[in-house]
Specification:
This protein is mainly α. Helices cover about 85% and strands about 0% of the residues. The protein contains seven helices and no strands. It has helices at about 5-15, 25-60, 65-70, 75-105, 110-145, 150-160, 165-210. Helix 2 runs antiparallel to helix 4 (about 75-105), helix 2 runs antiparallel to helix 7 (about 165-210) and helix 5 packs antiparallel against helix 7. The longest helix has about 50 residues, at about 165-210. The model has no long low-confidence stretch (mean pLDDT about 80).
Length: about 210
């Protein structure tokens, strides 16, 4: 439990024994809490970047990746990987700027605006990441459909037997199920990590709202 919440509980127990904090004192507490939360958002995003970089390094020689060299699609995969890193780096910069902005804020109204801006940035980060994963999955699937000889042979046989629609339907359904599970796991991760921090940040916003009244 943070310092502000402890003080509020103490006031409720015995209002006469505890001094009232001034607007400035409460504001400084909320500013410190908000700055700490945004700092942790920045730190966690850095750790996430390092995690994905390590995963890419470990799997670079995996059989799955070697297949794309056979497909002569390594340039496409490299472009996707670079674009993914650029997305994360872009949001890392935004998280850092949000942290710097909040840390030096000296006005309650501006602090509220910066809190809302940070919350929007995190939500955009999650949405863009998930969208990138979904689009990348379909790009990879398209490459396999067009350049994997075994896959091309299966498609040709399905077309010859009049089962092309069935084949594509099953493939799309399986892909959507796998993507659904993947997105679900990532959403759970983002909710447990960023969601908790955003909830605390939103509580700070509500406290500032009360100060403004």
């Amino acid at each position: 439990m943070d310092e502000l919440e402890i003080l509020k509980k103490d006031w409720q127990k015995d209002d006469a024994n505890y001094p009232k904090l001034t607007f400035e004192e409460i504001y400084k507490m909320l500013l410190k809490k908000s700055s700490s939360i945004v700092k942790w958002i920045f730190i966690i995003s850095i750790l996430e970047f390092i995690f994905w970089a390590l995963i890419s390094y470990v799997l670079k020689d995996a059989d799955y990746n070697k297949k794309f060299q056979e497909y002569q699609a390594e340039n496409i995969m490299f472009s996707i990987m670079v674009f993914g890193y650029l997305i994360i780096i872009y949001f890392l910069v935004r998280f850092f700027m949000n942290y710097r902005t909040i840390s030096v804020t000296d006005n309650a109204k501006i602090l509220m605006e910066n809190i809302l801006k940070t919350r929007r940035t995190v939500k955009q980060y999650v949405a863009v990441n998930l969208g990138f994963i979904i689009i990348s999955a379909f790009v990879v699937l398209g490459i396999q459909f067009n350049r994997d000889q075994q896959m091309v042979s299966i498609i040709d046989n399905a077309a010859a037997n009049g089962e092309l629609f069935k084949f594509y339907s099953i493939t799309i359904i399986v892909t959507l199920v796998v993507l659904g599970v993947t997105v679900g796991v990532l959403l759970l991760f983002y909710y447990l990590i960023y969601g908790i921090l955003l909830k605390r940040l939103n509580n700070n916003y509500k406290e500032l709202k009360k100060l403004e009244v």
